[in-house]
User: What shape does this take?
Amino acid sequence: MAAIAKSLQIRKVNAAENPQNRQAKRLAMSLHKQGLSLLQIATELNEAGFRTRRGQTFLKMSVLRLLWRA
Assistant: This one.
């Protein structure tokens, strides 16, 4: 169990420190304040060329997680 907790903590730190994630988070927060839906925010991030830390396109759930960590 300790290894799983440590792995989760490392992934959170890596995601928080990733420069592209920080830029995507700022844009997502701005779009969210403008009233865009999670799907609309995901579309905007993907069209702007942003990808998740693992190189995937943003989905509604990944945008929600990004905003939760804001």
